[in-house]
Amino acid sequence: MEKRILFAFNAVAEKKRRGLFGECASWDTISTISHALLESGFQIWPVNVHTQEQFISFVKKIPKPHLAFVYAEGFLGDPKSLWDGSGPSTLRDILSDFCIPSSHSTSEVMTLCRHKELTYQRLRSFGLAVPLYTVVNPKSFQTVELSENLSFPLFVKPSGGGCSLGIDEFSLVHNMEGLWYKLRRIYEELRETPTIIESYLPGREYTVGVIGNEQKYVLPIIAFPPEAGIRSLWHKRNEKENHWSIIEADDPAFRKFREIAIHTFEALQASDVIRIDLKEDAQGKPHIIDVNGTPSLAGRASLTLMADWLGINQQQLINLIVAQSLARFELEVPPRLQEIIGEPLLKLISYGHEVA
Q: Which of 206, 320, 326 is nearest to 264 (CA)?
């Protein structure tokens, strides 16, 4: 019998994929994921999630899925849910009500990942390095007072959201006037969203991908040049391939980043896949600045580029994640899926990233 997968996503036309809808997928990416699931022998039930009511109605109408592959970040009809941290958890809570297991991390872990101050609190409690920070309401931008441990330059960003929402050339501030200006801009766009003011880290930025559960595999690490500047959504989508480099497993720096990535995965109790962004301070010490529980699977996304470096294509990457989800819930991995992921899994293992 074919395994049934509910495929939940948020997709909009390319011209709308910015601002509040920057989290949304392109239709090309959705087509690729759908094709990957079909090629693996699944019967898929795709839904572009607009509202909670629509999603619940859809779940009620279809045959009960064996697994939900949740690529959605929230509800298109409620754009705030796409970036304020509530969407991924709400989707998983709905699926849990119907006893449908879901891919990626749990509702609780998604809440941690989608609220940066909660991410920082958890990671710091496990001894992992995060920037010094405080959380403020941007509405009160003119009365903000900084604690003694924070000094300029500072970096300002919304606590919720991904895709670098609210991050631009004004996020790096050097004085109170710049801080007030940036907080006012965030308030004008996102209203009273909790906002992080943190120590600016001037060093190099990195991103690390981890796939797995009990066995964890760290992918080749992407390093961005120091002159990359502030990586806004526009910059991320328009970066040239030669704008970054790979830290290979035989590089002494790789072990350091691998250990941080594995400890982060375990501290958050993440599942299946995460992507971790880090930045070095003036002394070269890496600090975790973001954890993405639903990393992009687009053709030019960081996770896809890491896998491609190992000779693992986009569809194989998608199916590796699906297989991790199925195994975590002790569900049968269909023979066709086993066949598809066999070679990519060997590449991960042979790359030397298997950690018990």
A: 206
Distance CA 229, CA 111 (A): 29
Please say whether the beta carbons of 123 and 130 come within 8 A: yes
Q: Select from 185, 214, 182, 209 the least CA-distant residue to 198.
A: 182
| Cis-peptide into 153, omega within 30 deg | yes
Model confidence band, residue 353 (pLDDT cutoffs 50, 70, 90)? very low
Q: Where are the beta strands (DSSP E) in 201-285?
A: 205-212, 216-218, 221-224, 245-247, 272-280
Instruction: Quickly state the pLDDT bin for 243 (edges 50, 70, 90).
Output: confident
* Contact indicator for 106, 325 with CB cutoff of 8 Å: no
User: Residue 355 pLDDT more than 60?
Assistant: no
| CATH number given to 132-199 | 3.30.1490.20
> Does domain 3-102 fall into CATH 3.30.420.40?
no
In three-state secondary structure terms, 296 is coil
| Structure token digits, residue 39 | 């090629």
- The whole-number pLDDT of residue 235 equals 60
C-alpha span between 49 and 235 (Å, rounded)? 27
Which 8-state DSSP code applies to residue 11? Answer: B
For the cut 80, the answer to whether the pLDDT of residue 12 exceeds it is yes
